Amino acid sequence: MILMTAIEGKVVLSTKHVIEALDQVNVSSFLDSWGPEEVIQVYDPNTGMQGFLVIDNTALGPGKGGMRISSTVTPLEVFGLARAMTWKCALADIPFGGAKSGIRADPYTIDKLKFVKEFAKKIAPSVPLRYISAPDMNVGEKEIEAFVETVGDRQAATGKPAKLGGIPHELGTTGFGVGVALENSFEIIGNTIGLPKDLADTRVVIQGFGNVGLWIAKFLSNKGAKIVALSDYWGTIYNKEGIDIDQAEKHAYATSEQASIKNYGKGTVLSRDAILGLDCDILVPCAVGNVINEGTWSLIKAKMIVEGANNATVQVAERLLFEKDVIIVPDFLANAGGVIGSYVEYKNGTEEEAFSVIESKIKMNTECVISDAMDRKLIPRQVALEIAQQRIMDAMEKQGKGRR
Fold it and tell me: Is 160 helix (H, G, I), strand (E, B) or coil?
């Protein structure tokens, strides 16, 4: 049975933007055999905070997923991200279900801590028994600390500051995991799809230079790979001779155009969207979802794409690229480092343990998925989904739920 709950403040009907936001979603369009179990929309009339929580599937455990702040976030987007978490946690074989939350606001103009606290108050009845939060786009360690303190339970979120017993995502757990998936995929199929013989000879383009992009750039730079382009919200820097990541790091996490990576100083400055069409061996999208779509897929020159961002590629684009022998390592395989690290934090493990478990789980899953996909001539995402769905189906049947 699907439970849909709406928790709202005193919605002022004359507040046009609130009504427009709440009117964007037809929850019934989400429903399928897997979920969602619960869709919560909240509003605080004093701050103007609008937020969404989607608890997709809890067959394997409480719904796990980050909290983002974006001026364009919608319930449909949050649902898509929650579903990705459902598959990600199942594939990683950790006892979490899938969920996600989002606050609809411009992160550069609001008091983020105030908005996060109001959001936490509204959804507190679901936390942490049904939802456990974490950092995501425009939400970092400080915001998670505020969320946890407002709820009043340290298990309310992972990615907490170390002083609260956390393993902060700023340590680079997600980016490290993407690096492990990329390196192992390269070793398994690099020769088959025409990549250089050595990872150190590859040219890599990274879209997004924040909490994922920076750390995958560091990982690959340490392996000797050549990072030829980086981008953020304000633009792209391209240098065919390679970008010095140590020097570029001061432009990571940019919150203004002045701080943007486009001001790195050594290379050609291009538009933000130009990065997808640059000549390279491997493309790593680490920004927002749906960037590789019907209008952009034909621009891509990379032979392998490793998804650092959730839902980076739309289905039709993935199929078209596969037909051109471009292999996509899917998001819920490649970027699972964050949630695996979250699981280690959840059970009070150490930072060292987190990185060890991330490496072993992602390496094992990458070898299983990529090798099987190549043997069966299937898109890797299809193989990964088969594994994740079977684990969830088994759990639902044990609980007597079955598939709806």
Answer: coil
Domains of the chain: 16-82+100-164 (3.40.50.10860), 173-390 (3.40.50.720)
Q: How many Å apart are CA 21 and CA 316, to the nearest integer? A: 28
The whole-number pLDDT of residue 288 equals 84
The three-state secondary structure class of 206 is strand
d(CA 152, CA 106): 26
AA letter at 318: E
Please state, in angstroms and rounded to a whole number, the distance separating the CA atoms of residues 258 and 172: 24
pLDDT computed for residue 248 by the predictor: 97
- Alpha-helical (H) ranges within 93-237 are 112-123, 141-151, 173-189, 213-222
CA–CA gap between residue 131 and residue 124 (Å, rounded): 9
Spell out a b/e string for 67-94, using b for 16 or more CB atoms within 10 Å of the CB, else e.
Answer: bbbbeebebbbbbbbbbbbbbbbbbbeb
Token code pair at residue 135: 């950092």
Tell me the Cα Rg of the chain: 20
Query: Would you list the DSSP string of 350-389?
Result: -HHHHHHHHHHHHHHHHHHHHHHHHHHT--HHHHHHHHHH
**Is cis: bond before 128, omega within 30 of 0?**
yes
Residue partners of 77: CB distance under 8 A and separation at least 6: 102, 289
CA distance 297 to 317: 6
Q: How far apart are CA 192 and CA 188, in angstroms?
A: 8
Q: Is the dihedral of CA 183, 187, 188, 191 positive or negative?
A: positive
Contact assessment for residue 30 and residue 36, using Cβ atoms and an 8 Å cutoff? yes
Q: Are 64 and 85 in contact (CB under 8 A)?
A: yes
SS3 content of the chain, % helix, strand, coil (to 5): 45, 15, 40
Q: Which amino acid is at 162?
A: A
Q: Summarize pLDDT for 199-211 with one digit per residue, the tens.
A: 999 999 999 999 8
Known catalytic residues? Answer: 100
- For residue 113, give the 3-state DSSP assignment: helix
Q: Spell out a b/e string for 267-293, using b for 16 or more CB atoms within 10 Å of the CB, else e.
A: bebbebebbbbbebbbbbbbbbbbbbb
Interatomic CA distance for residues 306 and 213, integer angstroms: 12
Q: pLDDT tens across 106-134, in order?
A: 999 999 999 999 999 999 999 999 999 99
